[in-house]
Structure formats: structure tokens, C-alpha cells
Amino acid sequence: MINHKTNKTRKTIILILKIIWTIALIYGEWYEFYNSVNKCEWPSIPPLESDLDENRVRFNVLIIADPQLPSIKYSYPKRSLLLRYISLQVIYQFIRKSWRFVIHNTKPDAIVFLGDLLDGGVATTNEKEYEGLVNRFRSTFPIPNTINQTNRVIYLAGNHDLGLKPSINLIDSNLAKQRFIKNWSNNDKLSGLIEWGNHTIIWIDSIGLIEQEKEEEKVVESFIKDLNGPEMLLPKVLFSHIPLWRPEETNCGIERESKRVIKQGKGINYQNEIPEKVTKLVLEKIEPTIIFSGDDHDYCDIIHTLPSKSYANPTLSIHEISVKSFSMGMGILNPGYQLLTLSNPTRYSKLPEEQTTFESSCLLPNQIKIYTKLYLPLFIISLIIIILPSFIEKKSVKKLRQKQARTNGLPIHRKNLSRNKFNFKNKNVLTDSSSENENKSDEETLTNKLISQHSRRSDSMSINLEQLDELNSPTLSYHSPIDSGHEDDSHPSYTRRLTSKRPALPSKHSNNHNRSNGLLSSIFGRRRVNKWTNKSSRSFTSYRILKELWSLSSLIFLIYGIIWFWFWW
To answer: What single Pfam family name could you report for this chain, choosing any that match (predicted)?
Structure first.
């Protein structure tokens, strides 16, 4: 009965753990993302006095920076193959899940990717391998059918897509550019412009802009200098992968995670800023209303100032925002994205004081925190709940067996029993022959009683130790003739035993088990059989723990798998 209650209690505990894990997984893998994305809305637009309609025309642009989709061959080379594979799958799932929530919640009119699309884009020289990476990117970032990919999606090139000379040779650089234009560009160029929502959208090849500083042919600079058409009369939005130059120690704002600022620096295949001279050319020639850049992976919000051609505003302030990486594998706790709303109801009559661009920065959940602050503590608590009771029960059984082994398998009642049957000498010793004969007959009768009782007790002691719970009754005891003396009808305990309740008899299963143990004992010896019995008991405890762990873990993997396939469907 006790074992049945224990098993029922453990099943209830496992059921409660399963419910808790189900809630935790739904919260960590679905609700956290839903809540984070749902809290970030498109920026509100204040009404203008010149508006004839209260509802201003809006054109919404979703900006994604540095997804840098990893690959098993080129990402995290210092990690083991298994750890690398697990890391990649977790990152893929995070990006895909985040993208699905973002694209369904925002429903943008256009999308801009700020470069570094693939982690191994420049390192991959095999065409089929590169096509596989491109297909992986497109399956991770599926574009809705409501968005025309020809003129509503822009892909900028980053240093992980093209490389940066001299870290990469000329042949590989040209190959990387050709592949990028073939798979991502809509105008067969790495720079371009388009009109969205009465705004001119300009994107520049910042990699080429840095490389061409030391070259005679300056393709990107020529593109910038040739921007003289009527579209330049509209408010302009500039997109660049690498941030523009800024003075040393320029503060990036309170939304930045890292304490370090963006400052000029370069290394193998990267450079932190566009050079100062080229930055001045870009700002003076384009005069953008706002600039969005990537590459740094963290948020940064600064203001560029330069002289203005307008007498009303002698100083032109240009806002630049470095957008957070969309991936959890880029060294930041909370990845993010940017929402940009363009609102210019009149085409060419924009007043200088009117604002037509509105932006808001959005954060994604901290996946590492979900793992370490939610799943890991819950996992440790689950292990303790499953393993600790079995360990305590095992210790208790061990102590009970040791105690029973010291008492020959049955509890000894420490009572001061009468030894009158063993004291054959009386104070008044009879000397006649009839008394001696009577004493001898009494001794013989007593000896026969002792022999018969001893044989019955020996049979009872052959019962296996596993039945001790049934036989452990205060009315059943074994009294050693040496320790306690012999009990007869005259002893008070004899009458109490007769009137007390008899212990339950062993079940049929127990009898069969005893017979099998007796047969094994006769072949291998009782000590060895008892040792095997203890091992089987320990094995059963381990089996029960493994069974409960498997039951719980299988549910966890099932729920996680359902969530996984839901976001990849």
C-alpha cells in the first residue's frame, strides 16, 4: 500500500512538472517574442497645419541589419562540430521566429537589409555552396507576396558579403561582387536610388567607397556626384552598411548596450567607419534627412552637423542611426530592428521645418536570458525533484536493512524474560531418587520443546528480507535462548501473543520469490544472492529515475519541436 501511494505521488509530481514545462516553453518560445514585437508599433505622426486630411499618407519601411546568417563551415570555427551545429540551429530558429512575428505584426510596405546577409558569403568560393547559403537565407527571411521584391526590397552589401581589400584579393573581390549582384541586386549595381512615399531612397556601396579611396577609378563617388535629377528635390533617406565618420568619443545614446563608442579602426576584412573625407562628400552632396547604417551590431544614435545652404537654417543637422543586429549571435543581449515611416503628402512643396520621416527602434527578446534564467533553473529543480526522493528512499532502505541484519532479520524485544525454565536448581534441593527422576523427565520434556520451537523459528527465518515489512510486527519476535530465555505457557508474553493479531501471510508472488531465492541460495550461497538482490533494487531505482526523466524530456522535446516546425512551416 505504501509503494502504491508513493508511485501515485511521484506520477502526480511528474504531471505537475510537465504542466510547468509546457507553460515555460510556450512563454519562452512564443509569448516573449509575441509580446516584444507587439509592443513596438509604427511611429505616430503628429498632424500638420497644412494637412487637409487628418490621416496623413504613410509609407512604412522595415529595416533589418546584419542578420549574418551563419554556416557550419565558416562560423564559430573554434567550437566543436556538435556545439557548432547546436549553435547554428538555435540562431536559425531565433531569426526565423523573430522574422515571422515581425513581418506578420508590422506588415511593411517595403524592406531594407543593411548588409552582412551571410556570414560566409565572401569565404565561399564554390557556386553550389553559395547557392545553398542564398536559399537558406531566403527560406529564413521569406518575403510576403504582398511586397513586390523588384522595387520594394533592397539588399545592401556588407564586408561579409563582398570582403574588404587588401584582406581579399582582386579576383575573389570581383567574384563576390558578381555573385551578390546576380542574387540580390535589382539594378545590376551595388548602389542605387528609388522613390518611396514621396521620398528619395538612396543606398551606397560603403565597401567600395572605402576601397576606392586609394584607387583611380572611383565608381561609388561618381554615382554620388551624379545625383542631380529632380528626385533630389524630395526628402532623402540614405542607407549605408558601414557607419559614417564621427568625432572621437561621440556618445551613441542611452539605448546602446555596450559602453564603448564607435570609433575609427580597421582589421582583417573590416573597417569601423567610412573615412572622414568621403563622409563629408556624402553629407554635402546628398544632404539626407536621415541616415541608417549597420555593421556595428549595436544601437547608436548621433547627429552630423554641416553648413546649410538655407538662410533659415544655417546649420544642417543630419540624424544617423546604427541599427541593431537582427541575430542573437552577434554579441548583443537584445537584438533589434528599426521601423521607418515616411509621410510627405505634398511632392515638391516641403517646407524646411516640416518633418517627414519618423522612426522607432524595436528590441527582440534576450534568448540567452530565457535559457539561463528560465530553462536552466527549471531543469535543475526538475532534476532535484526527480532524483532526491529516490536517493533519500534508497538511504532509508539501506539503513533498515543494516538494522535488520544486526537482528538476524527480525526485531528483538529487549525484555527481561523469565529464565525459570533454565534454572534447574531450587533452593530446596531434593535428595531422593523420585525427585531426581522427576527433574530428569522435566528436563527431557523441556529439551524437546526447545528443539521443536527452534526448528519452527529456523523455518521462519528462511523468509526473504523483502518480506520484512509484512513480518515486522510487534507481536512477532525471535528470542534467542541465550539472550532472553525460553518462554512457556506461564510467561505473560505468551498469552499476549495468542490474543494479538497475527501478521499477514506472504503473498503467492512472495512465496514464489522466496522459493527462487532459496534455490539460488542453495547453488550460489545466501550472501551472494543477497548482494545480487541489493544490486537489482538499485537498478530498479535507477530505472525509475531514467523512466521519469525520459517521460519529462520527451514532452519537452515534443513541445519544442511543435513550436520549431510551426515557425518553419
So the answer is: Metallophos
